[in-house]
Amino acid sequence: MTKIESHIVGVNAEKAKGWLESNRRNRALRRRLVDTYARDMLAGDWVVTGEAIKFSRDGKLIDGQHRLEAILIANETRPDLEIPLMVIYGLDPDSQHVMDTGARRTVGDSLALDGIANASFVASTARLVAQYENGDITTNTVQMSTPEIRDWVDAHPSFPDFISRNLRHAQKSPAPSPSGLLAMLWKLTEIDSEMAQDFYTGFATQENLSKGDPRMTLFLRFVDIRIRREQARARDVMGLMILAWNAYRKGRTLSTLRRPGESWNSSNFPVPI
Asked: Exposed end of the chain (fewer CB within 10 Å): N or C?
């Protein structure tokens, strides 16, 4: 039986390229994941974990192609970049069939380890806010990594408490995505915190609202989506919420609420006022 060995190896672009040439029966490359890893490497957020680059006993690469491809991408920006990676040699070639079949640790799991309450909602909402701020909410082309989301949360220390204070209303509302609701509330709070809270509380409780009030119209639109079982995502919640908010800010009534066109895009997604 071939001895199984493991080492920490500094991997540069030349070594990554050589190892990739021994790639064997690996999964189809996920370009967004490669780009995410490359950004972490360039930002200095890449850390050595127990997750290893793996080689079979016949010298074939059986796990690690996304990390190695990321080194090649990062090398285009920093030719001198070398990333420390755990490497395991001598595995049974058939072990590839059972790799990555367990439950992966989520960003929420990572935040929960730090004692953050409602960690899964903090993580999912932070991801949406960051995508919105980066102009990626309609395209969703950038896959954010755990370090990137953690960095965003760390940069906004009041965010976890904001989620805890507003989560109950979000979960009880008919909105298809509570995280989308909270993400947009966070952005509206940056515009006018008092008015945003009045808007959100009125929407959530429906107390003392009359027909045509944008908050009621938004609530009923979400109810209609649920009844009709329409497919709606977080960006739908956020876009419709902005339309209702803009009418509320202007003191206008709003009888209907619809997405403009077949889908949201960079040209028709509304801007909160």
From this structure: N
Together in a domain, 94 and 116 = no
- Any residues with CB less than 8 A from the CB of 183 and at least 6 apart, and which? 125, 128, 129, 132, 234, 238
Q: How does pLDDT run across 111-160, given as a tens digit for each residue? A: 887 888 999 999 999 999 999 998 888 887 777 888 888 989 999 999 99
Strands (E), the chain: 5-11, 53-56, 61-63, 83-91
One domain for residues 80 and 184: no
- Number of independent structural domains in the chain: 2
SS3 66: helix
pTM of the model: 0.70
Torsion of the alpha carbons at 261, 265, 270 and 271, rounded to the nearest 10:
-170
Residue 260 CA to residue 265 CA, distance in Å, equals 10
Owning domain of residue 113: 107-249
Nearest C-alpha neighbor of 227 from the set 167, 176, 168 = 176
SS3 44: coil
Residues 142 and 73 in one domain: no
Q: How far apart are CA 52 and CA 146, in angstroms?
A: 18
